[in-house]
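User: Can you predict the 3D structure for this chain?
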Amino acid sequence: MRTALELRMLATPKAAPELRHHLREHGYDVRLCATELLTNVIDHVGEGTPVTVRVIGTARHGRTRIEVTDPDPRTLPVLLSATEAEVSGRGMALLDALADRWGVDQAPDRKTVWCELRNGSDAGEPEAGPSAPLPPECPSGRVNS
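Assistant: Here is the predicted structure, written as structure tokens:
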């Protein structure tokens, strides 16, 4: 069985707690990574941008995949090294530290930024049943192994 959640929302600061509420059955790392991906859209694509958030859990691969799709294929996430004095710029670094891997799938009219975490890597992560494989990675996207 493949556990999936798909939400369509506007990327606004008020959407972050709503997203965390929908993901309350998932562990802290899943909720944090999903919120960081949403916040990245707010900060770099624009507040009010329509997004689709997908969370797909699979036991067969022992991973949870989080995807956030927005309509701007040109604005890509950048991994920065923020200093202690900076108040922003840590979102992708945090995601990079928590996720086993992450990347970007681009299409002419949209992009999907995704990450994968091991199931059970944090407290409260639900167990998923047997499932189909995760969607394939985009060869042009960055993948951390």
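The helical segments are 15-22, 28-44, 91-98. The CA atoms of residues 63 and 119 lie 5 Å apart.
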